[in-house]
Design brief:
The complex is a heterodimer. Chain A is α+β, with helices and mostly antiparallel strands. Chain A has helices at about 35-45, 110-115, 135-140, 160-165, 170-180, 190-195, 210-215, 220-235, 235-240, and strands at about 5-10, 20-30, 65-70, 70-75, 90-95, 100, 105. Chain A is elongated, with a radius of gyration of 21 Å. The chains are: A alpha+beta, B mainly alpha. The interface of A and B includes residues 160, 166, 199 and 201 of A.
């Protein structure tokens, strides 16, 4: 095969037509510029209109186009083909572990159900101030590396514990957000949140293999957040909450 | 204490005990002090070996239970066949009872050697 031809092996499955999924091979002339995998998909769609994938913002903000690219989860819109090419070959598959709706489109219901479980909103039943609940710069800094998650599911679907127990183990994305609210000094439901996480599956099923860290397209570290949740769970909760209800 | 926290502590503390005890066994071995007589007569050694055996069973139970709840579920067995998936709960129970019985047999066997 000539060097300027890209060979793309893509997972294809249309439940209305196909009994089983299959890998379809596409060949395309290598673009002169270094383009993103999403742009490559657009070029492929010109060849074959039946290809299905999700995309929206095309700049790594919406998290729609998470997929498995050459064996590693990532966002197609911010993955340059030069960074993943091996012998001019690219393998594109849907995010692992979630049911496939069609081609590269997966059913995210289980993923969102776990996110919903952690109650991803601020819980504070004290009287609201006139403008906003203030934080010190130091307290605000604790949220850095947590709030940036775009829920693309690249981390959770690269986690074997989530593959085996997607209904019981919350997964790295939901746990990162769980810690985002545990670390927020404005949230006063720390004990209740920890109680919800204290069973043997929700958090403890994480064995720290760090696939989540390796696959996060935003460079976040869910494993570190999970470690901090475990520390909070293993400590006496009374030590965590001060008399005025603010977490240390 | 909830089960999640208890099992986490048991896994870590038992592993720490194994490290210390196996280090001690290593020392006895290389100083030619390890003998059947020591195992059956020294009270201190008998107690520490009994704790070791019990902790091995607990440690193994938690580990194997984790493996079972990962790989012997409706979802994972469903990758092989639908009938296996339908029987997943029974298969996992048989698996769990098997290693509980194995642990009991090993414990009784060692205790009978050490204490009787």
């Amino acid at each position: 095969m000539a060097k300027d031809i890209l060979e793309i092996n893509m997972y294809r499955y249309n439940p209305e037509q196909d009994k089983f999924p299959y890998i379809k091979n596409y060949s395309i002339e290598k673009p002169a510029k270094d383009i993103m995998v999403l742009d490559l998909l657009h070029l492929l769609k010109e060849q074959d209109e039946s290809i299905s994938y999700r995309r929206s913002c095309r700049e790594g903000v919406c998290g729609s186009d998470g997929m498995n690219i050459n064996g590693k989860n990532g966002l197609a819109c911010i993955t340059p083909i030069s960074s993943i090419l091996k012998n001019n070959k690219i393998e594109l598959r849907p995010l692992p572990g979630l049911p496939v709706i069609r081609d590269l489109v997966v059913d995210m219901t289980e993923f969102y159900a776990q996110y919903e479980k952690i109650k991803p909103f601020l819980q504070n039943n004290t009287t609201a101030p006139e403008q906003e609940r203030l934080q010190s710069p130091a307290d605000r800094d604790k949220l850095d590396g947590l709030y940036e998650c775009i829920l693309c599911a690249c981390c959770s679907t690269s986690c074997p514990s989530f593959w085996w127990n997607p209904d019981k183990f919350l997964g790295p994305a939901a746990l990162l957000q769980a810690y985002r609210f545990l670390a927020d000094t404005r949230d006063l439901k720390t004990n209740e949140r920890l109680d919800e996480l204290s069973d043997p599956f929700s958090v403890y099923r994480c064995h720290g293999i760090m696939n989540c860290v390796s696959s996060c397209p935003k460079g976040l570290n869910p494993n570190k957040a999970i470690g901090k949740i475990k520390t909070m769970l293993l400590r006496d909760k009374k030590e965590i909450i001060t008399s005025d209800g603010v977490m240390n | 204490m909830n089960i999640g926290r208890l099992s986490w502590y048991l896994q870590r503390y038992s592993a720490f005990y194994f490290l210390i005890f196996l280090g001690y066994l290593e020392y006895l071995f290389w100083t030619n002090s390890l003998s059947f007589e020591l195992i059956t007569t020294c009270s201190w050694f008998k107690v520490s070996l009994s704790i070791f055996i019990l902790l091995v069973c607990v440690h193994a139970f938690i580990g194997l239970w984790t493996v079972g709840t990962d790989y012997l579920t409706k979802r994972t067995l469903g990758f092989i066949s639908t009938s296996l998936s339908n029987s997943a709960d029974i298969i996992r129970k048989i698996y769990e009872i098997s290693f509980i019985l194995l642990g009991l047999i090993i414990t009784l066997m060692y205790f009978s050697i050490i204490w009787f």
